[in-house]
Design goal:
The chain is α+β, with helices and mostly antiparallel strands. Helices cover 58% and strands 16% of the residues. The longest helix is centred in the N-terminal third of the chain and has 13 residues.
């Protein structure tokens, strides 16, 4: 694990960081993510509260916006 990952893991928590990286890796070229919370939980091995908290963190930072159930848009 590199230093950047260790630092971010300390700040966000390892599982939240895993979810955020999953969102980034699975968004399409236009920044859309078509995944439900349940799918993200299953794919990441994270709990529902952790996934919701990670998505909420991105929303609070105006980096992610839920458009409808299972569809999100990344804004960077």
């Amino acid at each position: 694990m590199d230093l950047e990952t260790k630092i971010l893991g300390k700040i966000l928590g390892e599982q939240k960081l895993k979810v955020i990286r999953y969102v980034a890796a699975n968004a399409d070229a236009e920044g859309f993510l078509l995944k439900t919370v349940a799918q993200i939980c299953e794919d990441c091995g994270a709990t529902k509260p952790t996934v919701i908290a990670a998505l909420k963190t991105l929303e609070e930072k105006k980096a992610l916006k839920p458009l409808k159930r299972g569809l999100y848009k990344i804004f960077l």
